[in-house]
Amino acid sequence: MATRLRYKKVPFDNIGKSMFSFLLAELICIWVVAIFSLFLLPTVIPLHFSFNGTPTSSGLNSTLMVIALLFSVAPAIILVAALFRYELLNKYPYLLVVPAFYAGIKSVASSRKGYWINQYFKILLVAGSYLSCILLVIILEIYTAAQKSYINGYLAVVIPMISIVVVAVLLILLLKDMYKRMAVESKAKKRRR
Q1: Cα dihedral value 164, 20, 86, 179, nearest 10
Q2: Disulfide check for 163: which of 34, 133, 134, 193 has CB 3.0–4.6 Å away?
Q3: CA 16, CA 136: separation in Å to the nearest integer?
């Protein structure tokens, strides 16, 4: 017996498709940098730097592959979730439920639910793209530092800290705006009744 889908599949609009492609391209770039580092950097490279930028320890260039793997986890999860968003929401809704989104999606018209699901995942793709861009900059900075045996110590500390704050604020603001627009649509639906 087949399970009944609760949410009808609606494809991403051009912005959603672009954000998906952009995130995928960033993920590929992270791996390209890591793979090229195996061939272009010496076997032993500086890996840890003091705040004044001088190397304090070294290791194998294959360490950049481990860094690329770690940097790939969040973007890969976002890509898979966006690709299989309807399957996940229909079979395992508890995995992706954000209380405000779940409450809001129940009150919009059935014909608009796919639109709002796509809006939610487009916001996740935007946040994932921004995060991946920062991770790409970090791995490029590590690659450059390994070549020069020097890193801007403040840059290596400040970029990750600022990026986490910016991604969190961006995500909160975009979700808040989406919830407001969803509430307006829900109220309009109730008035029509």
Answers
A1: 50
A2: 134
A3: 21
- Whether 88 and 95 have beta carbons less than 8 Å apart is answered as yes
Nearest CA to 82 out of 27, 179, 135, 16 is that of: 16
d(CA 132, CA 150) in angstroms, rounded, equals: 24
What is the torsion angle, in degrees rounded to the nearest 10, for the CA atoms of residue 37, residue 43, residue 44 and residue 50?
-10
pTM of the model: 0.83
What is the per-residue pLDDT across 114-164, written as a single tens digit (0 to 9) for each? 888 899 899 999 999 988 988 898 888 888 888 888 776 666 667 777 878
| SS3 (DSSP) at 134 | helix
Q: Could you give the 3-state DSSP secondary structure of residue 48?
A: strand
Distance in angstroms (rounded) separating the CA atoms of residues 145 and 56: 12
Q: How far is CA 180 from CA 101, 116, 126, 135, 190, in A?
A: 11, 12, 19, 31, 15
Closest CA to 22 of 147, 157, 92, 125: 125
Angle among Cα 3, 123, 6 to the nearest 5 degrees reads 15
Q: Can you state the angle between helices 113-148 and 14-40, rounded to 10 degrees?
A: 20
